[in-house]
Amino acid sequence: MKNFKLIYTIGVIVLAVLLTLGIASLILAVLGADVLKTFWVIFCYPFTTFKNLSGVINIMTPLTFVGVGICVAYRSGIMNIGGEGQMLIGLLCAIVFALYSGLEGPASIPLIMLAGMIGGAIWGFFPGILRSKFGVSELLSTVMFNYIATQLYSYCLRVPLLDPAVAGGAGDPQTVKLVESQWLPRINEVIENVPKGTRFHTGIFIALILAVIVYLFMWKTPVGFKMRAAGASDRAARYGGISVNKYLVLAMLVSGACCGLAGTVEILGVHHRGLGNCTGGYGFSGIVVALFGGLHPLGVVPAAFFFALISFGCSALQINKIPVPSNVIDVLMGLVILVIVAAKLIIANPYLMDRAQRKVLSLLNRKEAA
Questions:
Q1: Is residue 174 classed as helix, strand or coil in its secondary structure?
Q2: N or C terminus of the chain: which is more exposed, having fewer CB within 10 Å?
């Protein structure tokens, strides 16, 4: 049957969307919320003003960085679940460099980002070397390194890097604010005639450029080919003379650097100082973004925008006086993620597709016989 794969894929996606909307509608109806208004806020409210759209782009930016980094690791045969920890160590290194290097001005921004990338790369290196040299599961090591990074960052935030203004319990722990010349400029500061209320910064352009660079690196260079070959089949790669262990470590270095850059850009563009929850959980959300983007750097970009749209829309429910508990936002986000991942797995399963094709052909043959 011609084009069955395309029809099957579209059918699964449509059914997944209908299933998500149906379950979400049922949950909202039980809570007594206006279902149509809720969906309007989630999917349409972000587009009502340029300010709202800029909020979506600000969420999209770190998701793109992390998603691209996760793609590199997965394509190379190693599962990086440590994006959150790599973000924390990356932004911690960036803050320390920014505060104590004595460098200021726009010329310091690339160096600060480099410091963040190095921090994230180092934190990705350890699970990579543990896997390649000692066979330690990266699922275990990356999760454990997340906990270590969280506690280390929390200690630095409360003791050596604590802002004297909040010492003694005067407020939430935070670092001293970076000087304004170290901030990433907002888009309205770079391009004329952009509304002053615009909140997104130039980090989004860095994220888009990174996605293109990683794509070219992974698909257009010999090193990238060897990394993908190692991920596709380590036995075949070894038979072809490829050092799989070396490329596993390299993949984790690149992946960690991307995640470290995500944390750094979030500090330079949004928070301008270290805070308790400045990663926003993007290190974990980026994994789902990478899967939804087909584990392709360019596919991550629209996937990150979609998840940012839902995240911003859900956070706007309270502002628009939708009478739902705040934790329902997490339920809706979790529902979307589960259905999307399930749909991806179904589409990628050749056995299920072949089974569906045989059933369709059987039904068509019966109709012809009748």
A1: coil
A2: C
Q: What angle do CA 281, 201, 161 make, to 5 degrees?
A: 55
Q: Which residue has the higher pLDDT, 167 or 156?
A: 156
201 backbone dihedrals φ, ψ, rounded to 5°: -110, 180
The rounded distance, in Å, linking the Cα atoms of 91 and 268 is 9
**Residue 242, domain member (yes or no):** yes
Q: Do the beta carbons of residue 279 and residue 87 sit within 8 Å?
A: yes
The pTM of the full predicted model, rounded to 2 decimals, is 0.89
- Residue position matching structure tokens 């170290």: 182
Residue 273 corresponds to which tokens in the numbers above?
A: 């100082």
CA-wise closest residue to 204 among 156, 268, 125: 268
- What three-state secondary structure class fits 271? helix
**Which residue from 205, 186, 207, 206 is spatially nearest to 196, judged by alpha carbons?**
186
Domain encompassing residue 193: 60-301
* Residue 137 token pair: 């599961």
pLDDT of residue 27: 87
In a domain, 259, yes or no: yes
Assigned domain for 124 exists: yes
Q: Are 52 and 46 in contact (CB under 8 A)?
A: yes
Lookup: tokens for 314:
């859900």
> Predicted confidence band at 200 (pLDDT cuts at 50, 70, 90)?
confident
Contact 203/304 with Cβ under 8 angstroms? no
Structure tokens given for 111: 């160096």
Task: For residues 207 and 62, give the distance between their C-alpha atoms in angstroms, rounded to a whole number.
Answer: 8
User: pLDDT at residue 1 above 60?
Assistant: no
2 lies in some domain: no
Question: Could you give the maximum distance between any two Cα atoms of the chain, in Å?
Answer: 84
For the chain, what is the domain count? 1
State the DSSP string of 53-92: HHHHHHHHHHHHHHHHHHHHHHHTT-----HHHHHHHHHH
The mean per-residue pLDDT over the stretch 69-79 comes to 94
